[in-house]
Design a protein that fits this description.
- This protein has 8 helices and 5 strands.
- The chain is of the alpha/beta class.
- The two termini are 18 Å apart.
- It comes from Microbacterium azadirachtae.
């Protein structure tokens, strides 16, 4: 089986982009050994900083040639973050429409089983609480797309928020977004629960 992961820095996780066999040190690196042991060809196509518009720009060159049979897409938090740190918003309607176009192209090209990862945020600074409404809009868009495309949805925000209850969330994501090894294990576990159920 050809298994491809595409998304932003949480998927990228420091991979060597010149090495097709590099998985970085995040959740993909935790999932890859088991998948490979089952005979899968695994590719990590995450790029730090990517938004859905960036995925669109490289979809035909990076993603479609891998012809995935199982495709995981993880995007959305940079749309939220850039609104607040750069005054560069991505309206949810635009996010959803662009994302839908990518999924349609994937389905038409190689008909993969789809896994959509929901963006999450664990506020570690008071001002990040103001991001949660925007995040909720992006999460809702991912949920709608998962239903529309009969995709598996991985509810990461709920998983991470529940894990952070009663503890310092920085232990899971020091900046609220980028996971520690413990956070990556939770993400990998949530993916596995969704895909293997």
């Amino acid at each position: 089986m050809r298994v491809t992961f595409i998304g932003d820095s949480i998927t990228d996780a420091g991979r060597d982009r010149a090495d097709p066999g590099s998985f970085g040190d995040g959740y993909v690196s935790l999932l890859a050994p088991g998948l490979i042991a089952e005979g899968a060809i695994v590719r990590n196509l995450g790029v730090a900083g990517d938004r859905v518009a960036d995925l669109e720009a490289r979809w035909s060159v990076d993603l479609l040639p891998t012809r995935p049979e199982l495709l995981t897409v993880y995007v959305g938090i940079n749309e939220v973050w850039r609104r607040f740190d750069s005054d560069d918003p991505t309206p949810t309607g635009v996010f959803e429409q662009t994302y839908r176009g990518l999924l349609e192209r994937a389905v038409q090209t190689c008909a993969p089983r789809l896994v959509l990862m929901e963006p999450y945020l664990l506020p570690v600074r008071p001002e990040q609480r103001a991001w949660l409404d925007e995040l909720a809009d992006k999460r809702a868009a991912v949920a709608r797309l998962a239903a529309e495309f009969d995709a598996l949805r991985v509810p990461l925000h709920d998983v991470l928020a529940q894990a952070a209850e009663g503890r310092d969330p920085a232990g899971l994501a020091p900046d609220g977004v980028h996971p520690t090894p413990a956070g990556s294990r939770l993400i990998a576990g949530a993916w596995t629960s969704a895909v293997r159920h």
